[in-house]
Amino acid sequence: MTINELQDEIIEEFSQFDDWMDKYALLIDLGNSLEALDPKHKNPQNIIEGCQSRVWLNAELNNGIITYQGESDAVLVKGIVSLLIQVLSGHTADEIINTELYFIDKIGLKEHLSPTRSNGLLAMVKQMKIFALAYKSAVSTKQ
Amino acid sequence: MTNEQLRQIRADFPILTEKIYTKDLIYFDNGATTQKPRCVVERIEEGYYHLNANIHRGVHYLSQKATEAHEAARSTVAEFLHAGKREEIIFTRGTTEAINLVATSFGEAFCKAGDEVIVSVMEHHSNIVPWQMLCERKGMRLRVIPINERGELDLEIYKSLLNEHTKIVSIAHVSNVLGTINPVAEIIRLAHEHNVPVLVDGAQSVPHIPVNVVELDADFYVFSAHKIYGPTGIGVLYGKENLLNAIPPYQGGGEMIQTVTFEKTTYNELPFKFEAGTPDYIGSTALAEALRYVQCIGLDTIAIHEHGLLTYATERLFEIEGMHIIGTAKEKSAVISFLVGTIHPYDIGMLLDKLGIAVRTGHHCAQPLIDSLEIPGTVRVSFAFYNTKGEIDNFIVALKRVVGMLQ
């Protein structure tokens, strides 16, 4: 599936709930089912220091495809990490760099998160794109 | 406080009827800032609509009226703190600026390399960082009073920290995280035995307990208007006259001068020496209005009501399995920090928000304290006199639901 198809899928999944508590219950489920990050990747280089919860992100490149892993000590944040991984993992650097992540706005995550939290969310997206840029330049240098 | 009194008080605070995501607002974040009664907001409006002119300068009618209002506000604050002289009241932008003022000006006048400043581990960043900056500038040392398992200061260690190098002690009257009411009178007495002055950070105390700076013998006492139902952007530094006279101005500019020439400027007398630039004369009058409002209800009545809320909420919180209350001092203000099992405080705060309940989560600008307790932060509920047991009941129902979702 393309990144946009994956985004649309998430928007659809969230649209079935009117009540924010139900949307958050879904985020909690996603957070709880997120695969634990290998402890070796929970290092200071991979940390995205938010105001209140810590987030670790890691990316790997295999055959031109980037896969992401991540974790947070707050389960709601883990849910958000899970969504971002669901959308961006398994794509090429170019696809990731050129994508516009509209699902965050569409499911109301951005407006319903406090400014510090929202900045944390933006910081996560930024970091994932930085990983993609870094792999892209690494690949082009090799070539 | 009767139910009818409480109903009337709540009617003075329009924001309390707001709907948050269609739910009734339950505002339990009073430690961060308090809501404003109608009279305070009306006072601001009246100031801008009918009394606005720059003070201490104009010969015209409005300027004189505005000046009178600003100086009357100073007297109201002086009476509120039971200060000896109204000149001992300096208006600042808040607690933070007041502490920075003292750290800078007192530090300039009295401190040198090798000297020491004593704070405690439970201080707000505002009462740590200005002193750290002073220590860096002068080559001084910051000494820290630890706490026991209940969140009370270890006075024995405090005594051992006081020595001939100690230049000042700066301590919170009430902890914004633990709710601990510190024995500041005793802390001041012990410091004075070594001729060391004490600054008391009253940000979390003045809204809840009566303060008498003369009885306490505090050398400096500071607080913020917005935490006591007043406007944001204004606060108070009380300082003993002899100390304020002995330290240099903090900022230069208009108002704080006597005469200015390019060769030499002489400074104005107290309190103007420390109020450079156009002061917040609208804010000062609104603060005075807030203090009158609080005094009208009565700080004793407020203390009794809030203590009732503290006791009731504490009891009810323990209905929740895994409840861990951080800060169980014998003398405690209406602030409760807690954690439930291994749930991250952020998750609890975010979900409570969706149910219309405003709490604070995180390190509460007291990172060294949170780190020393080896926790990721806390959820904090902090009460005001307009809060009710009914709100606590609804909060407990919501918290049980949230914890159920997260466990």
Give a concise summary.
In chain A, 54% of the residues lie in helices and 14% in strands.
Task: Tell me what the structure shows.
The complex is a heterodimer of chains A (143) and B (407). By secondary structure, chain A is an alpha+beta fold. Chain A has one domain (3-37, 50-138): Alpha-Beta Complex (Sufe protein. Chain: A). Helix content of chain A is 54%, strand content 14%. In chain A, strand 1 (47-49) and strand 2 (54-62) form a beta hairpin. In chain A, helix 2 (20-32) packs across helix 3 (75-88). The longest helix of chain A is centred in the C-terminal third of the chain and has 28 residues, at 115-142. The radius of gyration of chain A is 15 Å and the shape is globular. Chain A starts with a helix and ends with a helix. With 407 residues, chain B is an alpha/beta fold. Chain B folds into 2 domains: 3-30 and 298-406, Alpha-Beta Complex (Aspartate Aminotransferase, domain 1); 42-295, 3-Layer(aba) Sandwich (Aspartate Aminotransferase, domain 2), CATH 3.40.640. Helix content of chain B is 41%, strand content 17%. Chain B is built from 14 helices and 17 strands. In chain B, the strands form 5 sheets. Chain B has a 7-stranded mixed sheet, with helices on both faces. In chain B, strands 13-14-17-16 form a 4-stranded antiparallel sheet, with helices on one face. In chain B, strands 1-2 form a two-stranded antiparallel ribbon. In chain B, strand 5 (116-120), helix 5 (129-138) and strand 6 (141-145) form a beta-alpha-beta unit. Chain B is globular. Chain B starts with a helix and ends with a helix. The mean pLDDT of chain B is 96. Classes of the chains: A alpha+beta (143), B alpha/beta (407). The interface between A and B is medium-sized, with 16 and 18 residues.
